[in-house]
Specification:
Blueprint (H helix, E strand, L loop, with lengths): L8 H19 L9 E4 L11 E7 L3 E10 L2 E11 L6 H11 L6 E6 L2 E7 L2 E8 L14 H13 L4 E6 H7 L8 H5 L1 E6 L3 E6 L11 E4 L12 H8 L8 H6 L4 H10 L4 H4 L5 H4 L16 E4 L3 E4 L10 H9 L8 H31 L1 H5 L4 H12 L3 H5 L16 E6 L1 H5 L3 H11 L7 E4 L4 H7 L12
Parallel strand pairs: 2-5, 5-8, 9-14, 14-15
Antiparallel strand pairs: 1-11, 2-3, 3-4, 6-7, 9-10, 10-11, 12-13
Helix pairs in contact: 1-12, 2-3, 4-18, 8-11, 8-12, 11-12, 12-17
Length: 476
C-alpha cells in the first residue's frame, strides 16, 4: 500500500501566497490560472408579482428543483425536488433532461449551473456561455454556446412553446443567496461564496475601487483551476486519466468528485486502476452521479465494483465508489494493520488544508485591499510597503516571507468575513470544517475573522435572484 503525506506548513504558506499573487494579477486583468470572471448582475426583475416560475440547480452530482412565486417582496418555494444527475455527454441529453423537468405552467426558468461559464446579457436576461466542461461532463455540442438560448431553442423545437431561461454559475448564485437587493456595500464586500463538494470554487463582490459605475459586479474565480501548487502523485495520475487533462488541477486534489479516487490509487498502488479494477471509468459511465457524496444508497453495506465483483463494507482496504464512503472509512477505528482508515483521514485533512489556503488568500487579499489607507497610516513602513504592493503590483509573494501575518498590521475593527459555504464535503466530511479552521489559524487568519454560514436551499434561492428583485428581507 502506498504512503500519503500532508503538505508542510511552509508549503501551505507558499501556496497561499501564490494564490494571493494570482488574485492580484487577475484583478489587474492579467492572465492567470484563475478565470476571475466578472458578472454584471441584473438590475431589473424579469418575473412579475404572483407569477409562477421555476428554479433549477445542476451541481456536480445532484439536481435541485422547485417552483417559486414572488409576492410582496418575498419568494415562496413549492414542490422541491432533489435527485442524482445523469451523465451529460451531449447537448441532446442535457436539453432532453431539462425538458423532462420543465413544468408546463411556467414561462420563466432560472438555472444555476455548476460549470465554467462566461456571463452575457441577452434581451435583459442573464445568460451564460459554457466555456470549459468540468467535473468530467463533456457537454458535447454546448461548448461556447449560450446555455439559456440553447434550451429555449430546444423547447420551442420540441413543443412549439416559448420560454425564457436565465443562467448563472453556481458560485455566483450562492453569493446572491443571502444578499437582499438593498444590502449595504460593506455587507457585500465582506461576503464570500465557497463551494466544496463535488467541485470547488469561490466568488465575491468587487470593491468600488475595482470597478466602474456598476456596483453589482460579482467575480467568479473558478478557483478549482488554480495550479500554482505542487500536485500529488495520485493527482497527476487522475489528471492523466481525465477527459479534461491539465485543467481544474486543484479541484482534482480536493473535491468530492476525485478524493475517493486518490484513496483507490493509494490502497492498490496501481496506475492502471481505471482499466483493470473499475471495469470502465466511473466518470464516463456516470456511476459517480448515482453514488454522490452525502447521500446514502439503499444498501449501504454492499457495493458493486467493476464488472460484477461484490464488495462488503467490512472488507479491509476495499475500493470506494464515492467520497461519502471515504468519509465513512475515516470514521472507523484504525486498529490492527488496516491503513485504509489512516489514508482516508489524511486525504480529507490534505484537502481541507488546500481549501484553507484559498480561504486565507481571499481573506488577506480583500482585507489588505480594503485597508490600504489604514496600512499607509501605520507606524510600520514595512507593512505600508506590503499594502502598497498589494494594490499596485504583484510583488506580494516576494515580501510575504519577511512577515507572514499581514492581517494583524491593519486596523483591529475589520468586519468579520462571512463565507457562505455549500457542499456536502465541507459540511459533512469527517472533521472537514474543523481541519479548515485549524489551518486558517496557521495561515495568518485571526480567530473569529471568518465565519462559515450554511444557507438552506441556497442553490435555489440564489437562482431566484437572477430573475426576481426582492426587498431587504425578501427570501422565505
Amino acid at each position: 500500500m502506498a504512503q500519503i503525506s500532508l503538505y508542510s506548513l511552509p508549503q501551505l504558506k507558499k501556496i497561499r501566497d501564490n494564490f494571493i499573487n494570482e488574485l492580484i494579477l487577475a484583478a489587474r486583468g492579467e492572465k492567470t490560472s484563475l478565470a476571475f470572471i466578472k458578472n454584471s448582475l441584473p438590475l431589473k426583475p424579469v418575473v412579475a408579482d404572483d407569477e409562477l416560475f421555476q428554479l433549477m440547480a445542476i451541481g456536480g452530482s445532484v439536481f435541485h428543483m422547485a417552483l417559486a412565486k414572488k409576492s410582496k417582496n418575498k419568494i415562496s418555494l413549492q414542490k422541491k425536488v432533489k435527485f442524482f444527475l445523469p451523465h451529460f455527454s451531449s447537448r441532446e441529453i442535457f436539453c432532453k433532461f431539462f425538458l423532462e423537468q420543465l413544468d408546463p405552467r411556467v414561462n420563466t426558468v432560472a438555472l444555476n449551473l455548476a460549470y465554467h461559464l462566461v456571463p452575457s446579457l441577452r434581451h435583459g436576461l442573464v445568460d451564460d456561455r459554457l466555456v470549459i466542461p468540468t467535473k468530467e461532463q463533456p457537454f458535447s455540442g454546448l461548448v461556447n454556446k449560450l446555455i439559456g438560448q440553447e434550451l429555449e431553442i430546444y423547447v420551442f423545437e420540441k413543443l412549439k412553446r416559448r420560454i425564457r431561461v436565465a443562467v448563472a454559475n453556481d458560485a455566483i448564485c450562492l453569493l446572491l443567496s443571502t444578499l437582499p437587493s438593498q444590502s449595504r456595500s460593506s455587507q457585500r464586500l465582506s461576503t464570500v461564496a465557497g463551494i466544496v463538494g463535488a467541485g470547488t470554487n469561490f466568488a465575491f463582490f468587487l470593491s468600488p475601487c475595482q470597478q466602474a459605475e456598476n456596483e453589482n459586479i460579482a467575480v467568479n474565480l473558478e478557483s478549482g483551476n488554480f495550479d500554482k501548487f505542487p500536485p500529488t502523485a495520485t493527482g497527476k495520475i487522475i489528471d492523466q486519466n481525465s477527459d479534461q487533462r491539465g485543467q481544474q488541477l486543484l479541484e482534482k486534489e480536493v473535491s468530492g468528485n476525485y478524493l475517493y479516487r486518490h484513496y483507490n490509487l493509494l490502497v492498490k498502488h496501481s496506475p492502471s486502476l481505471w482499466d483493470t479494477t473499475w471495469g470502465i471509468p466511473l466518470w464516463r459511465s456516470g456511476l459517480q452521479h448515482q453514488q454522490g457524496f452525502g447521500v446514502r444508497n439503499p444498501e449501504p453495506s454492499r457495493r458493486y465494483v467493476g464488472a460484477g465483483s461484490l464488495v462488503n463494507r467490512g472488507e479491509k482496504n476495499r475500493l470506494l465508489l464515492s467520497t461519502f464512503e471515504l468519509s465513512q472509512q475515516a470514521q472507523l477505528h484504525p486498529g490492527g494493520v488496516n491503513r485504509g482508515v489512516t489514508i482516508a483521514r489524511k486525504l480529507i485533512e490534505r484537502s481541507a488544508s488546500l481549501i484553507a489556503c484559498q480561504i486565507a488568500g481571499i481573506y488577506l487579499f480583500k482585507t489588505c485591499r480594503e485597508n490600504k489607507k489604514s496600512a499607509q497610516d501605520t507606524d510600520s513602513r514595512h507593512m505600508s510597503r506590503v499594502a502598497a504592493n498589494l494594490m499596485d503590483n504583484a510583488r506580494f509573494t516576494s515580501l510575504m516571507h519577511v512577515r507572514e501575518d499581514v492581517s494583524k498590521h491593519f486596523k483591529k475593527e475589520v468586519t468579520p468575513f462571512k463565507f457562505i459555504m455549500e457542499g456536502s464535503l465541507f459540511w459533512h466530511g469527517w472533521h472537514y470544517q474543523q481541519f479548515v479552521e485549524d489551518y486558517l489559524k496557521k495561515l495568518a487568519v485571526r480567530k473569529n475573522s471568518v465565519k462559515f454560514i450554511n444557507v438552506k436551499n441556497s442553490s435555489l434561492i440564489g437562482a431566484s435572484r437572477l430573475i426576481a428583485k426582492l426587498g431587504r428581507n425578501g427570501i422565505i
